[in-house]
């Protein structure tokens, strides 16, 4: 007889494992909130940092870029990477990134449900960069500049990662 009790159990176990493997992507999408686009990443502030002696020697200007991440969903999320382009008065200063890929999930910034989190990125730019002379950053403070940022962030929940595109600007204070 071909279908013995033992073979039927084995076929059932293999079918259950195969179904689990096939349905895993569908199951994992349930761990990501359906309203992932409700998460907002805004430019909170940009600070021009006083140069350290090493930065003076390297002729670098350091900007501290602060992002405010609002998570109105009912799930706790985290981010593994934020890549962005920073503009000052319409001039691109270059690309920046914050990378937590090599850090375990429990060490990454936690975006708790129904709350905001602030994430800071150091953005270094050579002082002889032509874009700095075009916006005359040497004679300005960070509040005299219209700051803009656009980029993408990888938002994670459980085993699922989804890219989130963002764009924001800070108007100069008058």
β content, as a range? 35-45%
CATH fold naming of the largest domain: Immunoglobulin-like
Largest sheet: 5 strands, antiparallel
Number of domains: 2
Structural class: alpha+beta
Description:
The protein has 174 residues and is α+β, with helices and mostly antiparallel strands. It contains three helices and eight strands, in the order H-E-H-E-E-E-E-E-H-E-E. The protein is 21% helix and 45% strand. Strands 3, 4, 5, 7 and 8 form a five-stranded antiparallel β-sheet that branches. Strands 1-2-6 form a three-stranded antiparallel β-sheet. A hairpin with a 2-residue loop joins strand 3 and strand 4. It starts with a helix and ends with a strand. The relative contact order is 0.21.
How do you describe this structure in short?
Helix content is 21%, strand content 45%. With 174 residues, the protein is α+β, with helices and mostly antiparallel strands.
Question: Any descriptors?
Answer:
elongated, 3 helices, alpha+beta, 3-stranded antiparallel sheet, 174 residues, 5-stranded antiparallel sheet, Immunoglobulin-like, 2 domains
